Structure formats: C-alpha cells, structure tokens
Amino acid sequence: MTRRRWIADTWTDDSATVTGTQASHLARVLRVRVGQEFDIVAGGIARRGVVDLASADCVRFRLLETIASEAALPLTCLLSVFKFDRYEWAVEKLTELGVAVIIPIVAQRTEKHLAQAAATRVERWRRIAREATQQARRTDVPEITDPVRLESIASPAPGALRLLLSEVEEDRTLWSALASHATPAAQIAIGPIGGWTEAELQWFDRNQWLPVSLGPRILRAETAAIATASVLAAWMESHRAATGDSAS
Ligand code: SAH
Question: Residues with Cβ < 8 Å from 120, sequence gap 6 or more?
Fold first, then answer.
C-alpha cells in the first residue's frame, strides 16, 4: 500500500525535518516514535525515512533509499482569481489531478476586492496545495506563483499546447484540439466570472492560444478548470502508458 508522504521543511543529503502542523500531527495524532519509518519527500524526491528525533514541533528523519514516484503532469493552469472559497477548492482538486504549476491571474474583470486580496491569499493557496499533495501521495508540490496580470507572463515552452477555455467558442472542442496535437504538454487558461476583455483576448491571440470549448453549457470557472484538467490528465497518462515514460 502507498503510505502517506510527509514533506520535509528542511533537509540535507541524509536527513530531513518536518515542523509546524506536520510535526504536531505526527506527534499528537500518530504518536510518532524514534525508529519508526515514513515516506519523506525532500526537494521533490521521495525517500524512506527513519525517525531519529521526535517532538511536537520538530520531527527529524534519517533518509534512506529513494522510492519510485510519479512526475507531475506537464500541465500549467492560468487560473483567474475568483471567489476565494471556490478558488481554494479548485487549487486542491487541480493538485490532486497532478498539475505542475498554477498561475493565479488578476484579470481586468476580476472583482477589485479579490484582486487586492489575492497577493496575501497566495500563501494559503500554497498551504492547501501542499496538503493536497500529501493526500494525493504526490512527490512534488505544485508551484503556485504570485498572482500576476496576463501581460507579465512569459511565453510558454515551445511545443506546449496553449488552450484558452472559452464559453463562446463554437467550432473547436477541447477534444479535437488534443486529437490533432502530439506533444502531451499543455497550458490551460480559465477566465474570470465576468469574462476576458477584448485586450486580454488579443493577448491570447498574439501568443498563439487556441480557444476551445467544453460544450454549449456555461460552467463555473472552477468546474471548467477541473473538467479540463481531468481530460488532460487522462490524455497525458495514456500517452505516458503508451511510451512507458512515467517515473521521475
Ligand atoms: N462570463 C460568462 C461566464 C464565464 S465562466 C458568462 O456568465 O456568460 C468562467 C470561465 O469558465 C470562462 O472564462 C471559461 O474559461 C470557462 N468556461 C465556462 N464554460 C465553458 C465552456 N462551455 N467551454 C469552455 N470554457 C468554459
């Protein structure tokens, strides 16, 4: 059985420590003892760890062999900022599904108070991603960048498919865009409740993003994000299975 993984707060070549809520959970709930073994993720690599020091605010492990683990999906999500309770849910689910990077976008039509508060919310989103990483037994915590405006995003890696999820696109479906693309790496962009402005749509167009539809229904942003990530995860995993390219 795959065991829950603990994510090291600090580590060296042969030792790692967890602090804060992870340490108190280990100490108070699991009653951790010196000599017990756990799976520890240190610097994105999962290893077997033996407890050699345990207290309620710090648990230290001696690191042993590496454990085979899955790489994140080569999937980046540009996720416009929307109501925080729903946003947190989206961050958690995108993490479970395997996304590598989430870029919170402050869109021109993002509500003002959300746009202002986003910069201080990002730490909380990172914590949620970290907890979901453990729960999903991922090795690598997805990167959540500071909230940015579209214009400040650098061009993505060549070859990555850029998909602009659009509720007004009538011709191209998500599925058809995938069927005609060989490289299983992608960026997806999910718009704000009020939609993108004309200037933002021009930015996407200049940067070769393909508008794609999930069908004629208007989905909430978080539904569109999870649905798209699910389809892409299935696509990427089937590609990995076909090419035997899985462990990192
Ligand atoms: N302004 C719209 C709703 C935007 S929904 C309105 O109320 O009419 C928020 C985001 O979800 C959109 O920007 C888009 O990225 C995504 N989305 C919603 N429904 C979609 C669909 N059917 N296909 C593709 N993307 C969709």
Answer: none
| Contact status, residue 108 vs residue 197, Cβ threshold 8 Å | yes
Candidates 91, 137, 39; CA nearest to 229 is 91
Full set of structural domains in the chain with CATH:
5-66 (2.40.240.20), 73-243 (3.40.1280.10)
Residue nearest ligand 1's atom 4 by CA: 193
Average pLDDT estimate for 152-174: 87
Least confident of 197-201, 210-214, 241-245: 241-245
CB 43 less than 6 A from any atom of ligand 1: no
pLDDT score for 245: 61
Does 191 contact ligand 1 (Cβ within 6 A)? yes
Which of 87, 163, 219 for a ligand 1 pocket mutation test, highest count of atoms within 8 Å of Cβ?
219
- Would the CB of 217 count as within 6 Å of ligand 1? yes
Phi/psi at 34 (nearest 5 deg)?
Answer: -55, 135
Would the pLDDT of 246 be above 60? no
